[in-house]
Amino acid sequence: GAVVSQHPSRVICKSGTSVKIECRSLDFQATTMFWYRQFPKQSLMLMATSNEGSKATYEQGVEKDKFLINHASLTLSTLTVTSAHPEDSSFYICSARDWRGVTTEAFFGQGTRLTVV
Amino acid sequence: GQNIDQPTEMTATEGAIVQINCTYQTSGFNGLFWYQQHAGEAPTFLSYNVLDGLEEKGRFSSFLSRSKGYSYLLLKELQMKDSASYLCAVNSNYQLIWGAGTKLIIKP
Prior knowledge:
By secondary structure, chain A is an all-beta fold.
């Protein structure tokens, strides 16, 4: 299946700093990528849909000025958590869909565990 | 609204069979996915159903009834490594709607 690479896998940052997470589709072009957040023992929560070459679409309750998403190319989307606070500590996962496939399943990155201290 | 329901937690014995149910009410339907997620890891794809019936893939099978808005994931010959969360997701107008997941606990 298709491969989505997410980096870094773990990051610890100080409160007030910014963290950038990268999501790359390695063997297919992803016009759309999705960013999820998952708190312990909870399911995936969609934060935003990232479209190549245009502004991301944010879900209700997600601050677009805090979670900056850039999808500059067909293989790369980035999520920047600005002015991070301890409550932003979570597991962030990106996914991309290869629309050429019949199943159009979502391929996930490995996830990024963010800890804000 | 759009809603997907699955049991929060299930317990089964190693070597046994377990069925995880998923019911959905969505504005559109373009297929249903099952994903497995181990703690601290991203979900991995298990199965996809778009037509009614049973899809078998090794120890795992998935069933769909579109008229009933119902699916189940059947796991046979359970192994300890099957302890994980199982997520049901519906492709509704090409947006994935996720269930909260079912945590499966396997006991020896």
